């Protein structure tokens, strides 16, 4: 029988990103990014202005951050030790919504923190990409972790047998983003690794089986 498999997102799950992005915007681009706003698209404004940035400029700035500023990112508390513990009983891969040409940069970034993991890049809903990963690994059981509810919805529709954990490690956005558990798309919502690790290990070992009904 093949090993169990953890498929995890990176930003705000393994590494902090949004707070470092906010700092860089203010320091280098003259842009204020209000983390507590529920609507990401309206949260960025030129410092001193009340006019939100145009979506194209917002996405260009996000791309520029990943092109040159990934060195700013720091590990989420307990994430590295938790992934290393999980790797003792399961395969672990990263499914991250970055453009494909940034795959090696992400892999090297994670290696720098002691996480030598296979990285899959994706654009858009993660369900189809996750299904392809499952077809390659054919795990005995699988767990998916992501910070965004829409990806749990996509994975649940594509691979309902996968246990799904909604984890957002940035408290300032965790309180305002849609919750996948409340929406019925995730099996649990846990935002810290000290509490998430036992949940993940139990499901990878097959000790806890649950359904969304």
Protein model, in words:
The protein is α/β, with parallel strands linked by helices and 213 residues long. It has 2 domains: 143 residues, HAD superfamily/HAD-like (Rossmann fold); 55 residues, no CATH class. 39% of the residues lie in helices and 16% in strands. The chain has 9 helices and 10 strands. A 6-stranded parallel beta sheet has the order 7-6-1-8-9-10, with helices on both faces. β6, α4 and β7 form a beta-alpha-beta unit. α3 runs parallel beside α9 and α5 packs across α6. The two termini are 27 Å apart.
Comma- or semicolon-separated keywords:
alpha/beta; 213 residues; six-stranded parallel β-sheet; Rossmann fold; two-stranded antiparallel ribbon
Concise structural overview:
This protein has helices at residues 18-29, 55-68, 79-86, 103-111, 127-137, 149-158, 171-174, 180-183, 193-204; strands at 5-8, 15-16, 31-33, 44-46, 74-75, 91-96, 118-121, 142-146, 163-166, 188-189.
Summarize the SSE layout with pairings.
Blueprint lengths: L4 E4 L6 E2 L1 H12 L1 E3 L10 E3 L8 H14 L5 E2 L3 H8 L4 E6 L6 H9 L6 E4 L5 H11 L4 E5 L2 H10 L4 E4 L4 H4 L5 H4 L4 E2 L3 H12 L9
Parallel strand pairs: 1-6, 1-8, 6-7, 8-9, 9-10
Antiparallel strand pairs: 2-5, 3-4
Helix pairs in contact: 3-9, 5-6
